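Aim 2 progress update. The chain analyzed this quarter is reproduced below.
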Amino acid sequence: MNQEFINNIDNYIMEHRYRLINSILVYENGEIVFERYYNKFNESSRNNIKSIWKSILSVCVGICLDKGYIKSLDEPIMNYLPEFSYNIHPYHKKILIRHLLTMTSGIYWNSGAHYHCPMFEQLIRSKNWCEHISDINMAHLPGSKYVYKEWDVALLSAIIGKATGMTSYEFCNKYLYQPLEIASGEWSKSRCGVCYNVMNGEIGSDLSARDIAKIGFLFYQKGFWNNERIISEKYIEMALTPSPQNAGYGFLWWLSDKGYGGRGFGGQELNVYTEQNIIAVIQATATPSSKSYGDICAGIIGYNL
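Predicted structure tokens:
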């Protein structure tokens, strides 16, 4: 760890005008070595985690698989979502759960500009999310091309609901958040019952910096928390294996030669640096013009971008 950078981090933030950062938390060898809060935040303050939620949803899929709610990652999604069994498109029956986890479903997506996503806004307004997505054109053969998109995680959330008889939030709360003593607001829910960390919405998955770090520790400790097995090591290994279509992405987890983590719009970061035994969390207020703060985590571990 770069102690000199840590000692001067407040000056670094001021010099770079990083006014939206709310918290920076660093663990080394399991102990807190740096914890700083800004903008009236404290260790109990909760910040919307944005797309770090996707990495948490991946954990939930792994727990579903371990408990037998999902039989295999190579099951067609139509086994759970009948909207994809109606031959609307010949590729539909080829979409597997694995493809959703790697963002390779092949369903057409246009993200828009400046965090404005008209396609997702249309989904939010629709009565049946799965039906709406099944009506969208297929752009690629499932499994052939990585495209970061919201459809795939929305469908994963729906599958968890269909497989378990609970909403994805209820499942996450019971089998992940409660065992790890994580406090979170209830996830937003569509009119058809699909939970989601809604984009641009006020309700969503909001966690403290310490609670986000627990998700990193769970993977770092190969699925154990307080000597209790929460998720299998086998799933963690699969989740952190680079996708053939994107070497920097696993099962909704970002990968690098330094480690792995979750990312969220506006500078939300969870980073696990395995060789250095470091877990680092950054939280910030997200705005349409938000920055990213990868340089801070890079500085903490002494890595020059």
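The CA atoms of residues 88 and 119 lie 19 Å apart. The longest strand covers residues 21-28. These observations will guide the mutagenesis experiments scheduled for the next reporting period.
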